[in-house]
Specification:
Two copies of one chain form a homodimer. Chain A is built from 13 helices and eleven strands. Chain A is α/β, with parallel strands linked by helices. In chain A, the strands form three sheets. Chain A has a five-stranded mixed β-sheet, covered by helices on one side. In chain A, helix 3 crosses helix 5, helix 4 (72-81) runs parallel beside helix 5 and helix 6 (140-158) packs across helix 7 (179-188). The interface between A and B is large, with 57 and 57 residues.
Chain lengths: 320, 320
Amino acid sequence: MGGDHAPGAIVEGALIAAPLLNRKLLLVGKPDVLAHHLPKTLPSNIEVVPAAETVEMDEKPTDAYRKKKNSSLLVAVNLVKEGQAGAMVSAGNTGAANSFSLLVWRQIPGIHRPAIAIRLPNRHGGFVLLDAGASPDVDPEHLVEFAVMGRAYAKALMGRKNPKVHLLNIGEEPSKGNAFAKQAFNLLQQKSWFAGNIEGNDIYRKHCDVVVCDAFVGNVLLKASEGVAEMIAAFLRDAVPSKAHVRWMYYPVKWVTAPLKAQIDYAERGGAPLLGLNGLCVICHGRSNAKAIKNALLMTQTALDNELVTSIRDTINSDD
Amino acid sequence: MGGDHAPGAIVEGALIAAPLLNRKLLLVGKPDVLAHHLPKTLPSNIEVVPAAETVEMDEKPTDAYRKKKNSSLLVAVNLVKEGQAGAMVSAGNTGAANSFSLLVWRQIPGIHRPAIAIRLPNRHGGFVLLDAGASPDVDPEHLVEFAVMGRAYAKALMGRKNPKVHLLNIGEEPSKGNAFAKQAFNLLQQKSWFAGNIEGNDIYRKHCDVVVCDAFVGNVLLKASEGVAEMIAAFLRDAVPSKAHVRWMYYPVKWVTAPLKAQIDYAERGGAPLLGLNGLCVICHGRSNAKAIKNALLMTQTALDNELVTSIRDTINSDD
């Protein structure tokens, strides 16, 4: 029920994904509203789970948790807790998805702060950045936990065999950064898989697997990257004249912007898992279209097939 | 003498700028090395000031300051201190330029941390971001000082009459962010020109004049933005086939990428001033070409013509 184009785009994405999934898909929400978007005969692996309420996009998570015991979000979180679902995917209120998951599932022992892991593109197959926005106030020690979770992600979802971890910093040398980054560097340095500092431009230039930072920095980086890509797309569009008799000459521009779009389009990435909890919550962009939802569902299936949560639980205290 | 293409590109940029400047240009460095790049008869407003040593790009600022009393950087900083120059422009070791300026000129009374102000493009004429990298460890109070300096910049260099200040944050609402951002918000809120929080994507989408953040976040944002723009340019290049008999069909791509290049090219911006000191130091990108140096010199002249440093000194305690 959550997302700018919900439930239409969500249901559409689920219907596209259903035949590609090896498991059941539970659509949690108001049955009468969902019925408008569903075919009369449901695909064999889609089922509707009724939930009478919805958490609004701008609703305060704590209020929603207290007041709406039948919200689609809380019903979905409880399905995972009770073992009736393996994971939850949401394009709704991110803060609410984060805090409901945390409150109901709790952290994996050994993990103190959950983190959102987001896959970003670069010229070497991309990397995973965390925390992209879950835990704004953390200590340097928590970045070591993020690193272990990031390694589990890179193995389960990116096929990296022995993923290295970089610390996002404002210089490459060990002595660079603010007090927080210097302390994090010293802690990470004790790990065999630590690859040192990396700067904000080099994450897009160099090969890297996992990049860790606090949620404030990660969220600013993520959104600024998105903003620059959008601005460039807008400048490119503005440069194409609107008059039809000139416009056709610009047709070849499409040949170069189409592959670019595939590289930087958030919809290709699908979703970003919230890691560190006893359950898997995949957060989608609020403006997710059907394609984004489909890709998020496929990504979630890969995470489940590769037992991402179990692998974090198994390695959190032993990944040196 | 500093920069990846120094002194060739620096001298070339100075020669292009000289006829456009209403003041004298002092080239500080090794006379015999500079002579190779200079015409036999110098333009009337160019003069060489000899300096026997140079600070290397990777040299530790404190070491260089102690050991090299005749470095071109220290000679230039002293020329400003003694009133023989109005400002210094450098494409060399940024850390050294920052710390030499701080050590010799000291802060303007009322300012506790200097900040690098960098102008970034957006779809509404751009904005100035600070701190882009000068002071990694700051308190929330220092962001108020950055805001006042940013306003002086926006008036002197961007022609904004009553510039507003936004706080870079990970959400728009007042309650958003980490502890640092929340404290900064409360302090900034007391100012008439404070316009609230702004997110990393919205700085490139919405109209804004001045955006403040700490140097760690600012530097990550700046470099990530640069990295994304470079990556997109690379993807666009890669999409154009290299075979000549197909390549010509892609010619119109240039029509759209040329204006884009002008918008996002760092060389168009020229340089970024270090603000808050009793003197003006303009930092250029290490890889500055002649065009970047020319633009940095023209920007510096505008800053001097509009008395940027004096205006910061006059408003730091009264800009409410």
